[in-house]
Design goal:
Layout: H1 2-60, H2 120-133, H3 139-152, H4 156-169, H5 176-189, H6 193-201, H7 210-223, H8 227-240, H9 247-260, H10 264-277, H11 284-297, H12 304-319, H13 331-345
Helix pairs in contact: 3-4, 3-5, 4-5, 5-6, 5-7, 6-7, 7-8, 8-9, 9-10, 10-11, 11-12, 12-13
Length: 350
């Protein structure tokens, strides 16, 4: 009997203790879930913020293209930049290219490295020569001429010292911008692109040397395989200074950077621009030849009939004595490439 009374008295406390334990357990489980949820939300917020930060960081970084595969399209060799005398302005219908921040096409050099008469480097040298000849004798002029002579003899280290001497001794010289451009060229030849860019940055946009400086910066970027920035520089030369004698050179180089970036259609537009708007410039034969090569070799745009037609057009212009074609160093190469196409794809020229 006493056991029964004991159980009746103790049992309610056991039930109450169990209930409290259950409630505590449920409360603890609820608290754990709430903490897990808060932690999950916090991690999500941090993740989203990190993603946004990463995205913003990528937007600030320059966009570079991967180095292209070796192209089998023969492009004209790079040469030194030069500023040419201005001619009558012509409208340039430049296609839109990728913006962002190879040197220019040297007047085509076949196996014997034949230099076209009146080519870009020669014209630049002639222009500087004319400026110097028409200027009164002065000490700063003598220093500049000495530096140019050293540069032309490939003594780049000594020429750099001469140009630096002019800048230090004659900070107000009328030849200062010219000296900075020659200095940049000498630095580029010496493999010092950093100082080359620094020298070009000193040439103001109001200077007559600015288009050539812009062109040279494009050449340096091209040599560095930074085709995005090279494209931007060449596009600026062609679009902002369409009457400048480097505009056609810039379009030829722009077509190359577009090809290296896989923009074959833009490259074609660049070359057609030269043919249409700069037919009186010495780069027009380059334009015909490179356009034919695009249609012969480019995997996306390949059209052997168009390539063949352009080669034949080139030869017709050359045989008729047309300027920039009759004495073009590319003539023999065009004949060889046409014969090769005829032999391989058109049964000997039919």
């Amino acid at each position: 009997m006493r056991h029964i009374i004991y159980l009746l008295l103790v049992f309610p406390f056991i039930i109450l203790a169990d209930s409290v334990e259950v409630v505590q357990t449920q409360t603890q489980d609820s608290r754990i879930k709430n903490e897990e949820k808060r932690s999950e939300n916090l991690n999500k917020d941090v993740y989203e913020k990190d993603k946004a930060k990463e995205k913003n960081q990528k937007l600030k970084e320059p966009m570079y293209v991967a180095e292209p595969q070796q192209s089998d399209i023969p492009l004209t060799e790079p040469a030194e930049p030069i500023q040419k005398a201005e001619t009558t302005p012509k409208k340039v219908n430049q296609t839109k290219t990728k913006n962002s921040e190879a040197v220019s096409s040297q007047k085509k050099q076949p196996k014997k490295s034949a230099q076209k008469k009146g080519s870009a480097p020669a014209k630049k040298s002639d222009e500087n020569k004319n400026i110097l000849m028409n200027s009164p004798a002065s000490e700063d002029k003598a220093v500049l001429e000495s530096g140019i002579m050293l540069y032309n003899s490939s003594n780049f280290a000594a020429s750099i010292e001469k140009f630096k001497q002019l800048k230090e001794k004659f900070p107000q010289s009328i030849y200062l911008d010219m000296a900075n451009q020659w200095l940049a060229r000498a630095y580029m030849k010496s493999g010092n692109n950093k100082d080359a860019f620094a020298s070009l940055d000193l040439i103001p946009q109001t200077s007559g040397e600015f288009p050539a400086a812009l062109f040279l910066s494009g050449q340096i970027f091209f040599a560095m395989k930074d085709y995005v920035n090279a494209s931007e520089r060449f596009h600026r030369v062609a679009s902002q200074f369409p009457s400048h004698d480097l505009a056609d050179d810039a379009l030829i180089n722009l077509s190359k950077t577009n090809l290296f970036q896989g923009n074959g259609n833009l490259a074609v537009d660049n070359l057609l621009n030269v043919i249409k708007n700069y037919s009186d410039r010495e780069m027009v034969d380059d334009a015909y030849y490179n356009l034919a090569k695009v249609y012969e070799k480019d995997k996306m745009l390949r059209d052997l009939e168009k390539a063949r037609s352009l080669y034949r057009k080139f030869i017709e212009k050359s045989d008729s004595g047309e300027q920039f074609f009759s004495n073009s160093p590319l003539k023999d190469r065009v004949k060889r490439d046409l014969a090769d196409i005829d032999k391989r794809f058109f049964s000997g020229g039919r």
